[in-house]
Design a protein that fits this description.
With 384 residues, the chain is an alpha+beta fold. Helices cover 29% and strands 27% of the residues. It has ten helices and 21 strands.
Amino acid sequence: MNFKKALIVCLIPAFVISGCGKTTREEANNTTNQETLAQVSGQGTGQDTEQDTEKTESSGTEASSDDESQDAEVSRDLFAMDTYMTLTAYGEHAQEAVDKAAERVEALDALLSTGDENSEIYQLNQKGEATLSEDGGYLVERALELYKKTDGAFDIAIYPVMQAWGFPTQEYHVPNDATLKDRLTLADASKVNYDKDTRKISFDRDGMEIDLGGIAKGYTSAQIMQIYQDCGVTSGLVNLGGNVQALGCKTDGSKWKVAIQSPDDTEDYLGILEIENQAVITSGGYERYFEEDGVTYHHIIDPATGYPADSGLISVTIVSDDGTLADGLSTSLFIMGEEKAAQFWRKNSDEFETIMETADGKLYVTEGIADSLTTDMDVTVIHK
């Protein structure tokens, strides 16, 4: 199988939705007259932002109005949370669902941003204490649970260290040892005090700041799935900057097909995964990085060292029913490395599955999804 030229592939009745790249010439030639070729970008194309498109495609035979309504697609592109997103739903309530989902995305973006002076997270970071909204409180609670569960690999208090590297502002530079040592004293989520009953939060140390970006998009995709369901939609998909979550199956009853991007080539991918009612979220150093003096530094910072994680992994994909969990664990397992990540999965295999690629080109897949992944690579299956 040729895994070139696609980032996200979702094969649906009458439509082939692909990622940043285009389908291969052979795939395009094999598209029937009953199919339309569209594109969904994992990183965004910069075009058609916040535009609504409603697309229905009739087959060669006469279709009933009920069938047309059931298969009708509504898709909307927008820019939020510093990334391009695509929201897609099917059925007679699809337009309502997508509109409400877009409103929810924009509201969460305004609420959780670290750079917006009006957001509650910005205000918290400035004042060192706050009473959070229901969304903000839920995310802090989940983040602190993940901090304990991953032995500190997931740490929302890492933000001062991220600032030292210039990642939030894109003013990249390598901080000196003294700066990192100082910032690391602030990067300790155990010093975050949170009362889940009152949603009051405070920091033990002056200068501490948090960033919920490590789970915000996963939470957002889960919220969109809930909105879809509340609107009566049974088939839909969201792509939040490459974070994918699916509702149900495709309208023909078959599973969604999602491609996992290769960390070595943005126009290639590791394999195709079949999913239903799951989130698929990947973390890798290729997402954001800079070079200085011939050395590449990526944005996934190890809280134990203050430097970009050097665990031997170059890509980690998490598959889970829980989008929030998947988002947080994709970063955490990347920091842990393959051996510790495999041990962590064995302890928590009822909550997620994972696909990991090492720097020497080995692909590891947990047994729960091994049969759902199609790839040209040699695979080592991780068993319980």
